[in-house]
Amino acid sequence: MKQLSFSLLLLLTLILVSCGTDSHHFEIDGRLINLNQGEFYVYSPDGGIQGLDTIKVDGGRFTYDIPCEQPCVLIIVFPNFSRQPVFAAPGHSVDIKGDASHLKELEVKGTDDNELMTGFRKQIANASPPEMRKYAEDFVKDHPESAVAPYLVNQYFMETVQPDYVKALSLLTLLSKEQPKNGYLNRLLAGARQMKDVTMKGKLKDFYATDMNGRPVSAANLRASELAVINVWASWNYESMDIQRQLKQARGKASGRLQLLSINVDASVRQCRDAQKNDSINWSTVCDGQMFDGRLVRQLGLTTIPDNIILRRGEIIGRGLSPQQIREKLDELLK
After folding, report:
1. What pLDDT band is residue 6 in, cutting at 50, 70 and 90?
2. How close are the terminal C-alpha atoms of the chain, in Å?
3. CA angle 127, 130, 131 (to 5 degrees)
4. 3-state DSSP helix/strand/coil percent for the chain, to nearest 5?
5. Using CB atoms within 10 A of its CB, is residue 116 exposed (0-12), middle (13-18) or buried (19+)?
6. Quick one: which of 137, 172, 190, 294 could link to 290 by a disulfide (CB 3.0–4.6 Å)?
7. Kind and range of the H or E element at 222?
8. What 3-state class would DSSP assign to 254?
9. Over residues 144-170, mean pLDDT
10. What is the pLDDT of residues 219-264, one digit of tens each?
């Protein structure tokens, strides 16, 4: 009788394990056509995983499993550098299906948040930028309990060339009532609040810091320059590294008219130094190993990666530019 009971218990355990992910993990199962082999990068803006990880594709299929005790956001970066958010939750799994040649049409199913995000992506497929913002605002107001909502606020009202921090603060305050323990939301909320003080009549607010070589850096130095760029980067984020290289090229052509300050958000100062050495970066870089909890990043309200602030004679004239936008903007300003 005891042997029969043990056998039944073992069988039940095997059935439960085979039915899905255990309560301490989150899993992604993906299938893509028009991509047989390759790899994607994945990172988490709210600490769900540390640093940069890799997802391998074999025969058009891929799986990715992480320990997961709290909901978090995962960002998959595809070979063309487009990004797909996935909203992880303990004990859940999702399926990703689509065509590798039409990555904007991917479908992510398995949890309410991921299916809401898939629906939103379909809604904005043919929308103009102003329409996208309107749809994002409507989504936030209709789904204040969803983990998708803070991501959309960041995407459409903060991480843009022309951010609207007043609107972002209003929407994030609304969300915080429904999601008071969402760490990602609270980080964005703190950043949006700080952004009210970053500018004084369009000028960069005072700050003082020390770079990795012990040299002082300040807002006053940047305001004194004809052109200046503050850039946030990490050795594990390709797009931010690409911006670093764009800035290096622009600086070489600027004949002293362009001043640069980089803020590195690697968890390892040594890793930052190695990346600087490889790319021959010799301008001031602040790195304290605190990632987005670093003092200067928080002072400036910089909440994502890549991120940047563009200054002309101390006036803020741009934020959050892509590598191509950085190149075009600096080419225009340095003519």
Report:
1. low
2. 88
3. 40
4. 40, 25, 30
5. buried
6. 294
7. helix 219-223
8. coil
9. 88
10. 888 888 889 999 998 888 888 888 888 898 888 888 888 999 999 8
Report percent pLDDT > 90 for the chain: 33
Cα separation, 261 vs 333, in Å, equals 18
Q: Can you tell me the distance from the alpha carbon of 302 to that of 319, in angstroms, rounded to the nearest whole number? A: 10
Which residues fall within 8 angstroms of residue 37, CB to CB, at 6 or more apart?
Answer: 57, 58, 59
Has residue 162 got a pLDDT over 80?
A: no
Three-state secondary-structure class, residue 90: coil
Paired residues of 322 in beta bridges = none
| Greatest C-alpha distance within the chain | 88
Q: Please tell me the distance from the alpha carbon of residue 137 to that of residue 120, in angstroms, as a whole number.
A: 11
Residue pair 117/128 in contact by the 8 Å Cβ criterion: no
Task: Select 203-333's CATH number: 3.30.1330.30, 3.30.56.10, 2.60.40.10, 3.40.30.10.
Answer: 3.40.30.10
pLDDT-based confidence at 5, cuts 50/70/90?
low
**Which residue has tokens 């769900």?**
48
Is the separation of the CB atoms in 56 and 39 below 8 Å?
A: yes
What is the C-alpha to C-alpha distance for residues 215 and 262, in angstroms, rounded to an integer? 13
Query: What is the rounded distance in angstroms from the CA atom of residue 84 to the CA atom of residue 75?
Result: 6
8 Å CB contact between 123 and 135: yes
Domain 20-122 has CATH 2.60.40: yes
Asked whether the beta carbons of 143 and 87 are under 8 A apart, the reply is no
Measured torsion, CA atoms of residues 192, 68, 238, 281, in degrees rounded to the nearest 10: 70
Residues 6+ apart with CB under 8 A from 183: 46, 47, 70
- d(Cα 194, Cα 199) in Å, to the nearest integer? 10
DSSP 206: P
| Main-chain dihedrals φ then ψ at residue 148, nearest 5 degrees | -70, -35
Cis previous bond, 306, omega within 30: yes
E strand intervals along 132-280: 199-200, 203-204, 208-210, 216-218, 227-233, 258-264
